[in-house]
Amino acid sequence: MELVAAQEAALKEAQREAALASVERDRAIRALQGSVRNHETELAARSVALMDAEERIKDMATKLESLRALLVSEKEAWQTTILNVEEKWRIKCEELEAQVNKAATAGLDEGLKSLQMTYEKLKEEHEAFQDMAKSMIEEKDKEITRLLDDNSNLRKSLLAKHQAEKDSNQASKKQDTTVPVVAAAEQQILLLARQQAQREEELARCQRHIQALQDEIDELKRENQLHMQQETALKDEFRNMERERKRDGVDMTYVKNVILKLLETGEVEALLPVIGTLLQFSPEEIRKCQETYNSAPDVPLSGAAAVVDAAASAPRSLFSRFTFS
Question: Which pTM does this prediction carry?
């Protein structure tokens, strides 16, 4: 009986523990269900937030693409505008350069023409004054010769009269006639001396005027030479600018290939004009290159030495003719 009572007590205790365990299980199940519901709620909220974020990302991506397309279009528009502005300013610069060169050339030509006209005019005046001076000198020489002849004839006549009067032994008549003749001769000599002085003074004045004209002609020649030098310098500068402008658009790959071919083959006569055209050499530079190439004659060799040296020096045929510094 005691055993049955103990077993019943143990059974009751087991039932009580089972009931407690069942209560705990139910409580745990309810807690688990609450946690699941909370987790599902959180998952739903997170899904909604994620969908909202995806929508925002899509909107931002769309806006970014539109902004990128707008930026590309604006960039292309700006590039087109810049190219148009550069082309417009380049055309304006070329027009201004042409106008400046034309104005400078026209001004120099007009100044040169005016200087040439002034030079010709002064030259004509100089020649006219020279002719006048020569004619005056000739007239003066003729007048001096005539005066000398008149003086000589007058002296001869006076001596003849004096001798005739002396032979006639008429002293009184001789004295009366000799004095007026001598006085008249002295007056004529004084008059001729005054005329000679006036002519010499006029001749000196003409010579001074001729010298002044000659100095002015020399000054005009110097100015003309200076203008010609300035015109030559401006033309050279304009040609250099044109060559630099043309040199900017040269294909450097083609230039490299031409130079390589020149160095490999040494065909200076055929390739030098090509390089000169590509790099816009001036006529003076081309002439110097040709003179340098022609001034280094090839030394002929004989026999086997010629064959060996030809094989050794063939790749350096161009460098043997030019000296680089």
Answer: 0.31
